[in-house]
Amino acid sequence: MNRDTDDDRKTDQGKNIPIDLRSCIWTSSSASMAPHIKARCLVYPGSDTQRFPVPDDKVNWDTDWPQYSPVTYTAPTVEKKPVWADPEIGTFCPDFNSLDASVDRRSHEGPYRIQNGKPLNPHGRTGVEGRGLLGRWGPNHAADPIVTRWKKDLTGQRFSHASSQLPVLQFVSIKRLDCGEWAIPGGMVDPGERISQTLQREFSEEALNSLQASPSEKEKIQKRITELFSSDGLQVYKGYVDDPRNTDNAWMETVAVNFHDES
C-alpha cells in the first residue's frame, strides 16, 4: 500500500534551503505541544463528509464533552476490503498495542486507549469516527526518507546563502498532482517490512519512476541509491502525523530518516 497513489505524484526535484542540520531533529513530544489541525479540516478529503466541528479546547479526550457527536465515515475503497485494509471491528479480533502477526499495531506515541473495541486517536478528537481513507484501525505506519546534499558551486566548493552565510542544503522532494504541494517521497510500511526496507523501496520507486533515463543509467542510479541507504541514516522524527485523513479511530504515524550524500 502506497502512502500516495502514483497519480498524486509528479517528479523528484531538488529544493534548496539554508539550514543548520542540528536544528532539524524532532521528537513526537515536540509535535504534540499543540492540538492537531489538519486532522480537523472541515471536509474529509476525497468526500463530501463534513466533520463534527472540534474546537481547540475540546480536542483532548480527557475534556468532558457530552455533546460530541462525530460523523461515521469509511471510504468506499476501504469498504471493498483491499489486502491493505482491516475488516470491520466485530468481524475480527485485532491485537491492539501489539505486533499482531505481520501487522504492527503499536504506536510510536506509546499505548493508546481502546473504547468500545476501537482504538482512540492519541492526539484527540477529529470529528470523524471510522477509518476514512486509512486501511488500519489504530496507527497506519509510514516511512519518509529525507535525502540531502550540500549545494556546491562549479568548483566543487559548498555554496553559502547570501544573507545567512550558512551552507545551502538541497533535498529531494516530489510534487503531488492532486494538490500541487511539495512532499517528501515516503510511503506506507508493508506488513512484515522493516522501516529500512520501506525507506529504500519508496525512494527508489519515486526516483526511478520520475526519471527519463536509459536502463543502464537507471541501473547506475539504483546502485548509488543502494549505497546511500546502506548507512543507518539520522532519524529526525518518529511519531504522529497531523494528516487530514486521520479519524478518531485511525491515524498516520511515520519515521523520518535523513540520508546525507557527501559525494
From TrEMBL:
It comes from the Eukaryota. InterPro entries: NUDIX_hydrolase-like_dom_sf, NUDIX_hydrolase_dom, NUDT9. Transmembrane segments: none annotated. One of its GO terms (molecular function) is ADP-ribose diphosphatase activity. Pfam families: NUDIX, NUDT9_N. PROSITE patterns: NUDIX. Residues 136-263 form the Nudix hydrolase domain. PANTHER family: ADP-RIBOSE PYROPHOSPHATASE, MITOCHONDRIAL, NUDIX HYDROLASE. This is Nudix hydrolase domain-containing protein. It comes from Danionella cerebrum.
